[in-house]
Amino acid sequence: MNLNLIAVLGGGQMGSGIAQVFAQSGFKTVIYDLATSALEASRKGISKNLDRAVEKGRLSAEDREAVLARLTWTSNLADLAESDLVVEAIIEKLETKFQTWKQVDELCRPTTIFASNTSSLPITQLAGGVSHPERFIGMHFMNPVPVMQLVEIIRGYMTSDAVYQATFDLAKTLNKVPVTVEDSAGFISNRILMPMINEAIFCLHEGIATKDDIDTVMKLGMNHPMGPLTLADFIGLDTCLFIMEVLYRDFADSKYRPCPLLRKMVQAGQLGRKTGAGFYTYETAAKAVAAK
Ligand code: NAD
Fold first, then answer.
1. What is the mean pLDDT of each run of 10 residues along the chain (292 residues)?
2. In 3-state terms, what secondary structure has residue 229?
3. Which of 32, 74, 182, 219 has the highest count of CB atoms within 10 angstroms of its CB?
4. pTM for the whole thing?
5. Using a 6 Å cutoff on CB, does residue 15 contact ligand 1?
6. What number does the ligand 1 atom closest to the CA of 15 have?
7. Beta-carbon contacts of residue 57 (< 8 Å; ≥ 6 apart)
C-alpha cells in the first residue's frame, strides 16, 4: 500500500494522538477539524508531547522537527483530497460521522481507504454511507494513542480481505499490536471494559462501598493500574453512558442496563476530567484530586 498522505478527521484527544503516531512513523499527515480552537490545541498538544520525549531522551531534537514538518492542520476539507488513507476520530455521533464521511467520499479518490476510530458504532453501518464499503474498516486506537499499544482492527461486513490485511500490517508499521475483531457492539475492548465500569458505578449507587474503596479493590486486588471509577472519569462519563446504551440496545440484554447514577451524573454535566468533576474532582486537566 502506497501511503503518501494520511488524513485524520478530528483534532481532539484521539485524532491528535493518531496523527502524532503516524507522523512519528514517517507518514505525511494532515489533521482536519471544524473547530480552529481544536486545531490550535492539537498543535500545542503534539508539540508538548514531542518536547517531553526530547527531554526524556526518547527523541532527538532533529527528529522532533522532522515529525512536526510532516504534520499540517486544516479546517478546509479540500486539503484531504489527495489522501490515501483517512482515519476518522470525530465525535461519537452517528449522524455527524455519516455526514462527514459522505463529504470525504465525494472528495477522495475511489482507491482511498477509510478507517473509523469509533468506540461503539457498527462499522458495517458507517460503511453503508460511502460508495466503496469494501474499502471501509475500523481502526480502534486506545487512549492515549502514543502510549497504548493496542489497535482493534474491525472488519465490516463488506470490508475486503486486501483492505483488512493492509490495515492490519499498517498497525504493525505504527509499532502497535493489532487484534482482529468482527463487527459487534463494543468490539472486544468496550464489551468487557464498560460493563465492568458500569458495575463499579452500581456498587457506588447501592452504597456497597466508597468510591475510593471500589477503586482500591480493583487496583490492589486485581492489579489494575487505575480503579474503574478513576478510569471512567478519564474516558468521560458521557462516552461511558453512550457505549453502555449501544450495548444495551444492540444485544437487547438487561445485563447491559446503564446504572441510573451514571445517567444522572451525565445529565448534571459531571463528565469526569474534561469538566473538572466526575467521581473525583480535578484541579487541572492533568492532576486528579480525590474529592473527600
Ligand atoms: P474529542 O471530543 O476529544 O474530539 C472530537 C473532535 O471532533 C473535536 O475536536 C471536534 O471539534 C471534532 N469534530 C466534531 N464534529 C466534527 C466534524 N463534523 N468535522 C470535523 N471535526 C469534527 O473526542 P475523542 O475522545 O478524540 O473521540 C473521537 C472519536 O474517538 C470518537 O469516535 C470516540 O468514540 C473515539 N474513541 C475515543 C476514545 C477515548 O478514550 N476518548 C478511545 C477510543 C476511541
1. 94 96 98 97 97 96 98 98 98 94 97 96 96 98 96 98 98 98 95 98 98 98 98 94 94 97 98 95 62 36
2. helix
3. 32
4. 0.91
5. yes
6. 26
7. none
